[in-house]
Automatic annotation (TrEMBL):
One of its GO terms (molecular function) is S-adenosylmethionine-dependent methyltransferase activity. Pfam families: MerR_1, Methyltransf_11. Keywords: DNA-binding. It comes from the Bacteria. InterPro entries: DNA-bd_dom_put_sf, MerR-type_HTH_dom, MerR_fam, Methyltransf_11, SAM-dependent_MTases_sf. It comes from Streptomyces violaceusniger (strain Tu 4113). This is Transcriptional regulator, MerR family. CDD domains: HTH_TipAL-Mta. Residues 1-64 form the HTH merR-type domain.
Amino acid sequence: MAELAGVSVRTLHHYDEIRLVRPSARTTAGYRAYSAGDVERLREVLAYRRLGFGLREVAELVGDPSTDAVAHLRRLRGLLLERRDRADAMVAAIDRELEARAKGLMVTPEEQLEMLGARLYDAIGGAYTATRCTEPRIAGQIWDALGDAETVLNVGAGTGSYEPADRDVTAVEPSAVMRGQRPAGSAPCVAAAAESLPFEDQSFDVAMAVSTVHHWGDPIAGLREMRRVARRVVVLTFDTDEPGWQDRFWLTRDYLPEFAAVLAEFPSLAGMADAIGARAEPVPIPWDCADGLFEAYWRRPGAYLEDHVRRAVSVWTRVGPKAEQRAVRGLGDDLDSGRWARRNSDLADLDAADLGLRLLIA
């Protein structure tokens, strides 16, 4: 067993002595005999140890009676994805510094510390390709709004979802992690921020931005920049003007009230529309939405229990691990008990829901 697990016999003896992994039986010769359940527990212990958890923390994690093997695997997967994403972000920051130093450029203290505090998208971007992609029905509404535009600027372009294939597209994305995940053959991508677009006035027929404005440091400034460089503007964003908007979606109403604080500083829909002279259209979210945005699984609640789903949505990073864990635990309990189904029975027959997504068209 020691050879199979890649640890010493002394380690297994120690785990037995401290009651962390106690083999179920002994052979007639006195050797420890591990059952399938013992091996499963040992796997969990070693996985948590290799993630840096202390023995006391590991004992609490694997000894949790409410957590089964599947829950442990999901938790471990989420922790590993988060670590991978952070490592990817650090590598990208190091590469930028190495490139700057090779050119003899001065590296500021802020730039030196960037590897420890990468942009939000650099921290979550590694998970995007797993669940974030173009939803055809939402794309159709966006592309209709583009009209007869031939040249399109996609601001905050991410990995390239919703970029129309039949137009001349230029992308703008500040995150190196996101730029690195753009597929081969996608539109050329410029490393720049929305608030300072490196283009002349009226350079494009239309500038578009999809589910990105809430990540900008100054959304109004970014929208005005889009208006400056393009003759028309199309933006997919979120409406917080409607009274009680937090209660539109059962997830924020019943499990994650912290979502309201995430958007506390976000401009009003009316303010954003005024900034670019836009009108607003509702964008319904289909029940089987292919793009794993925050509200995508409104009729598939079990998806929110999956770590890889949450890791691709910035909301979960912003509310923090305590709120996330509480929300997931509460939702899981309500799904098991049937309480969620009873409270949300009106959703069962809906093909699409208006949960606040809005298309600004100027």
